[in-house]
Amino acid sequence: MNWAEFSPEQRSGLYRAIYERRDIRVFRDDPVPPETLARIIRAAHRGPSVGFMQPWDFILVSDVETRVRVKDLFERERQAAAQFFDHSRRSQYLSLKLEGIMEAPVNLCVTCDPTRGEEVLGRNSVPETDLYSTCCAVQNLWLAARAEGLGVGWVSILKLPRLRRILGIPPHVVPVAYLCLGYPVEFHARPVLQAVGWRDRLPLSDLVHYEGWGQQTGNGAWSEVREALASNKEPDPWKRE
Amino acid sequence: MNWAEFSPEQRSGLYRAIYERRDIRVFRDDPVPPETLARIIRAAHRGPSVGFMQPWDFILVSDVETRVRVKDLFERERQAAAQFFDHSRRSQYLSLKLEGIMEAPVNLCVTCDPTRGEEVLGRNSVPETDLYSTCCAVQNLWLAARAEGLGVGWVSILKLPRLRRILGIPPHVVPVAYLCLGYPVEFHARPVLQAVGWRDRLPLSDLVHYEGWGQQTGNGAWSEVREALASNKEPDPWKRE
After folding, report:
1. What is the edge-to-edge ordering of all strands in the sheet holding A56-61?
2. Considering CB atoms only, which of A35, A117, A228 is closest to B35?
3. Phi and psi for B182 in degrees, rounded to 5?
4. pTM for the whole thing?
5. Could you say which DSSP state residue B39 is in?
6. Which of B5, B173, B187 is the closest to A2 by Cβ?
7. How many CB pairs below 8 A link A and B?
8. Is there a contact between A157 and B5 if contact means CB atoms under 8 Å apart?
9. Could you point out which of A46, A130, A234, B180 has its C-alpha 20 to 30 Å from the C-alpha of A112?
């Protein structure tokens, strides 16, 4: 079966979602319509998975008491992590708002069950492909959310054994992503860490190698690709910084 | 800055890419235009990353000798992995076409450098978030490729130490995804492993938990979400199996 080509407008929708997706930490308190929430979870379930393993589960959380416990866990970890930054970076780090656990109307933990399916086709060489699959599913959800005008923030500053205990997750299941979901106050033009000068976006040409690691001149067949990457001629709807 | 809402057509483009993305193993030999290739690599570079770490690199490969070595590595691994399947599954496994290393006009290895950026904000609790970020970038690329009519196949049946040697990748850098890229002969309606009866798609309602692991009845606030997930009312353009 062959699908129709994407229209330019459909293509721009895909690229808009990619370019305008942000990690959202400030939420309005409007609720998320059940149909919308179902749509973005379904998008995650359409993620690619090694051997069609579909190792993911989704735990939806709104209960205040549970969120207070997750927020407390985050706060301890945030302070612990601060110790590893030197003075000036530490105060900047502590000034950043990094999550919206209590404000977001929906919290969602996406997990990976490494035991799903006995012998999984394609997972013999790299067992971590179950986690990789789960991350691809999360990215589907994140982009679908963006297209729905919905913000997603990934809270990675959490110790997993405690998070398991709070959510009752079995020891063998990996909590891959703890997400905060809701309508954002705004979608910023640039990632927060870029805007506040924490880190710059890396020049893409430094990250592309031709035929082998460290070969970055891109002679012969690759010279046009290298030029295209350097010239960065993006179609209008998604040319934004 | 607030962006405009997505038009229904743009939204359908995003969902089409998600629903119609496939793991492609059969390629036409048309070349990939340099501009298109640059566009999908740029889409990957717009992936989310922990602490804006951007841990990825991209190694483009077309050299036949290199691909012969990767294909040989795949073949050994494929045979090795076959030992773990029982008789009937083993012959089915060995009958499946699982990669297009030699036929695809472009091979692309996406790697993760765990040493990029000294102390990475948000990576203290879960160091694997660098790999997670790289996978999100791969999913961006995969979806952008789909919107461009381009197929991507992820070859996970490769031993990483040998793959590193073939591509000259330093020992500390993780080859996360070895991808085959090109125009597909077709985009199948369903994933190959589903179509051949290897594994079924799991019912989504079995994978959603409410307020804690194992709580799947979704009472109270969640009953509407549970109904929406069960009814599966997807807008037309992406209602396909």
Report:
1. A151-155, A174-182, A106-112, A56-61, B208-210
2. A228
3. 170, 180
4. 0.96
5. H
6. B187
7. 343
8. no
9. B180
